[in-house]
C-alpha cells in the first residue's frame, strides 16, 4: 500500500492501564506529517478506561484499529502478540509505548533513511529521555551504519544507540520472519532483538530528536531500574547468545568474565538487602541453565565489600552530623558570649 509514494507503516501501541498518558500518545500519531499509516492499539485487559479512550479515537480516524486481548499477557509475551497484529501490507513498523510520544516529523524522517538504504533493518534517532537528549555519539551524518559494527560497539564498549522500543522503526519483513521478536524469558530482551535484527541488516540513524521517552514511578523501566541486579541475567544471556556472532573468541571470553563479575556484585547487593537464600537459589538455577556457575568465594568477598561500603557510608554520615552539631554548638556558644558581653 502506497499513498503519495509513502510506504505503508504500521504504528503499534500495546496498552495496559495506560489511560494517564494515552491521549497524548495517540494524538502524537495523529499529528504526524506522514499520512500513510495504520495505528494498531492492543489493549491487554486494561482495568482503567484505556479501552474507552482508544474507542473514542478509533471513531474519529479510520486508520486506527483496535485489538482487544481475550486474556492478560505478560509484557514481553504481549509485545510479541502485538507484532502479530500488524497489517501484511506494512513495509515498516513503528512501535510506540502508551506513555511515550512522537514528534510530528518522526515517521517521515525515519522512513526517509530506511528508503535510502534498503539493507537497513532498524532506524533510530536522538530522543528526549524525560528531560535529557540521549543516544548521541554517532558522528554526523552517519545515516547508514554497518549492523555488525554497531553491535560490536555495543557489546564491547556499551555504546548504545537503540533506545527504548518507542525510539525505533523496524522493517516489517524482519518482524514477520520471526515467530517471536522478543525473548519472553526476560524483560530486557529488546536489546537482544536489535542484535538479532543486525545479524542480517544494517542500522540507520536520524540526527534529530524524534521521540520522547517518559520516566515516571509507574513505568516498567523505572521499576526494573530499582532492582538492577535482575537485569544481569538477561545481559548474561545476551552476551552468551550474540557474543560469538559479533566478537572474536578472545573478546567474547573477556566480556563474559566482565558481565559475570558485575552479576556477582549485584547479587551480593541483593543478598545484603535481605533477599536471601531464595534469590541465591533462583539465580544459581538460571546460571546453571546457561552453563555458568555462581562462584561462592567471589560472592562472599563482594558481600563483605558491600557490608564495608555501607559501614563507611554510615560512618561518613555520622561524622558529617558530628561536624554539624559542633558547628551549631559553636554558634550557640558565640551567641551566649555575645549576650553576656553585652
Explain this structure to me?
The chain is an alpha/beta fold. It folds into two domains: 2-224, Spore Coat Polysaccharide Biosynthesis Protein SpsA, Chain A (Alpha-Beta Complex); 231-323. The protein has helices at residues 19-30, 50-58, 75-83, 106-116, 147-157, 172-176, 189-197, 220-226, 231-246, 249-289, 296-341, and strands at residues 2-3, 6-7, 9-15, 37-43, 64-68, 92-95, 101-102, 120-129, 132-134, 144-145, 169-171, 202-213. The strands form two sheets. Strands 3, 4, 5, 6, 7, 8, 9, 10, 11 and 12 form a ten-stranded mixed beta sheet that branches. A two-stranded antiparallel ribbon has the order 1-2. α9 runs antiparallel to α10 and α10 (249-289) packs across α11 (296-341). The longest helix has 46 residues, at 296-341. The protein starts with a strand and ends with a helix. Mean pLDDT is 85; it is low at 218-227 and 328-342. Keywords: Transferase.
Provide tags for this entry.
single chain; 342 residues; alpha/beta; Spore Coat Polysaccharide Biosynthesis Protein SpsA, Chain A; 2 domains; 10-stranded mixed beta sheet; two-stranded antiparallel ribbon; 11 helices; 12 strands; disordered C terminus; hexosyltransferase activity; Glyco_trans_2-like; Glycosyltransferase family 2 protein; transferase; Nucleotide-diphossugar_trans
Amino acid at each position: 500500500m502506497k499513498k503519495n509514494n509513502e510506504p505503508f507503516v504500521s504504528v503499534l501501541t500495546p496498552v495496559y492501564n495506560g489511560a494517564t498518558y494515552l491521549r497524548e500518545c495517540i494524538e502524537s500519531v495523529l499529528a504526524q506529517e506522514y499520512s500513510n499509516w495504520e495505528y494498531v492499539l492492543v489493549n491487554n485487559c486494561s482495568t482503567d478506561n484505556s479501552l474507552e479512550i482508544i474507542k473514542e479515537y478509533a471513531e474519529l480516524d479510520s486508520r486506527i484499529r483496535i485489538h482487544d486481548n481475550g486474556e492478560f499477557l505478560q509484557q514481553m509475551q504481549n509485545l510479541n502478540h502485538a507484532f502479530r497484529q500488524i497489517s501484511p501490507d506494512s513495509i515498516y513498523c513503528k512501535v510506540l509505548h502508551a506513555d511515550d510520544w512522537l514528534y510530528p516529523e518522526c515517521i517521515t524522517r525515519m522512513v526517509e533513511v530506511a528508503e535510502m538504504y534498503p539493507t537497513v533493518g532498524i532506524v533510530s534517532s536522538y530522543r528526549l529521555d524525560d528531560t535529557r537528549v540521549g543516544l548521541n555519539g554517532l558522528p554526523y551524518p552517519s545515516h547508514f551504519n554497518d549492523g555488525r559494527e554497531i553491535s560490536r560497539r555495543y557489546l564491547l564498549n556499551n555504546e548504545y544507540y537503540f533506545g527504548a522500543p518507542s525510539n525505533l522503526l523496524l522493517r516489517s519483513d524482519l518482524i514477520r520472519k520471526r515467530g517471536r521478536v522478543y525473548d519472553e524469558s526476560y524483560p530486557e530482551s529488546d536489546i537482544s532483538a536489535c542484535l538479532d535484527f543486525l545479524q542480517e541488516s544494517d542500522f540507520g540513524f536520524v540526527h534529530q530528536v524524534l521521540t520522547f521517552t517518559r520516566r515516571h514511578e509507574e513505568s516498567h523501566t523505572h521499576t526494573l531500574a530499582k532492582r538492577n541486579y535482575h537485569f544481569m541475567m538477561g545481559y548474561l544471556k545476551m552476551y552468551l547468545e550474540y557474543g560469538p556472532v559479533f566478537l572474536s573468541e578472545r573478546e567474547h571470553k573477556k566480556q563474559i568474565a566482565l558481565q559475570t563479575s558485575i552479576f556477582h556484585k549485584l547479587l551480593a547487593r541483593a543478598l545484603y538487602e535481605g533477599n536471601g537464600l531464595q534469590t541465591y537459589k533462583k539465580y544459581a538455577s538460571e546460571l546453571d541453565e546457561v552453563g555458568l556457575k555462581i562462584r561462592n568465594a567471589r560472592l562472599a568477598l563482594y558481600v563483605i565489600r558491600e557490608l564495608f561500603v555501607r559501614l563507611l557510608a554510615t560512618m561518613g554520615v555520622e561524622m558529617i552530623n558530628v561536624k554539624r552539631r559542633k558547628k551549631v554548638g559553636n554558634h550557640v556558644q558565640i551567641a551566649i558570649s555575645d549576650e553576656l558581653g553585652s
